[in-house]
Write a structure and sequence with these properties.
By secondary structure, the protein is α+β, with helices and mostly antiparallel strands. It has two domains: about 150 residues, Up-down Bundle (Four Helix Bundle (Hemerythrin (Met), subunit A)), CATH 1.20.120; about 90 residues, Nonspecific Lipid-transfer Protein, Chain A (2-Layer Sandwich). It contains ten helices and six strands, in the order αααααββαααβββαβα. Strands 4-3-5-6 form a four-stranded mixed beta sheet. A two-stranded antiparallel sheet has the order 1-2. Helix 2 crosses helix 3. The longest helix is centred in the middle third of the chain and has 23 residues. The radius of gyration is 18 Å and the shape is globular. It holds the Pfam family MDMPI_N. InterPro entries: CHP03084, DinB/YfiT-like, Maleyloyr_isom, MDMPI_metal-binding, tRNA_wybutosine-synth. It comes from Micromonospora zhanjiangensis. This is TIGR03084 family metal-binding protein.
């Protein structure tokens, strides 16, 4: 059984790492451009604060959440950008808003009755899945901030959550790109930050992906192009997957160009 409290601890720790990166920044650095077109460091934090807000609505106010879905339906290509814009504020205010929101979200998810699923955009999610998604998003947008600041982050075992989500969304990646979802499974073997080996998918699958866990997570969050990563695909399904992998919901992004961290 999934340990929700452990997941919430990992989300707290992932958020704290990003918090430590942005909290000391002077106001001018909050306006640095990040690899996401049109988004500054402030936009990245505002996006996380906004998503925490709507996730808390899903856990505590389903009617309020469904109202946000209705608003999103009027601008499916721009509602995420609009959410980030709405949550922008001066650095100190924005930082406090993000901190308060993520604390409130953790409390709300911890209080969801066992067996309950929560509404989300186009699907329903368990609290554990919601937390896993928040870990992935916090790590991925934290990578954008780190890239903007020229900081190399130390990978942690929390990447396992991102890798897990990356493997679970194989079919979504194909579908989001308008491709047939393959029936053949893929086995994923990743080298963890501590040197251990993580395995996902059937061990006897003919199609396989191997490489560093960090590289796989950068790929499935579309923070690096596959050409810049040490991932090896064996088999046609695995090879095509590395072109369309997408751990996040919604339409596919443009991704990164080879050799260009700040291109999207």
């Amino acid at each position: 059984m999934v340990d929700l409290n452990r997941l919430l601890t990992d989300l707290t720790d992932e958020s704290a790492d990003l918090d430590a990166l942005v909290a000391p920044l002077p106001a001018v650095d909050w306006q640095r451009r990040t690899p996401a077109p049109g988004w500054t460091v402030a936009h990245q934090i505002a996006h996380l604060a906004w998503t925490d807000h709507v996730a808390r609505l899903a856990a505590t106010d389903p009617a309020g959440f469904l109202a946000s879905v209705s608003r999103a339906a009027t601008d499916p290509g721009g509602f995420v950008d609009r959410g980030a814009e709405e949550f922008l504020a001066p650095p100190a205010t924005l930082l406090a808003r993000w901190r308060d929101g993520r604390t409130a979200l953790a409390g709300a998810l911890a209080a969801v009755p066992v067996g309950t699923t929560l509404p989300w955009y186009g699907t329903r999610m368990s609290p554990a899945s919601m937390v896993t998604g928040r870990i992935m998003e916090t790590w991925a947008h934290g990578q954008d901030v780190a890239d903007a600041l020229g900081v190399a982050r130390t990978p942690t075992g929390r990447l396992r959550h991102v890798a897990h989500l990356g493997t679970r969304t194989l079919g979504h990646g194909f579908a989001a790109h308008g491709r047939a979802v393959p029936e053949a499974p893929v086995h994923v073997e990743l080298t963890a930050p501590d040197g251990a080996t993580w395995h996902f998918g059937p061990a006897d699958a003919a199609d396989r992906v191997t490489g560093p866990a960090l590289d796989f997570c950068l790929l499935v969050t579309q923070r690096r192009h596959r050409a810049d990563l040490a991932l090896v695909a064996t088999g046609p399904v695995a090879d095509e997957w590395l072109d369309v992998a997408q751990a996040f919901a919604g339409p596919p992004g443009a991704g990164r160009q080879p050799g260009a961290v700040n291109a999207a």
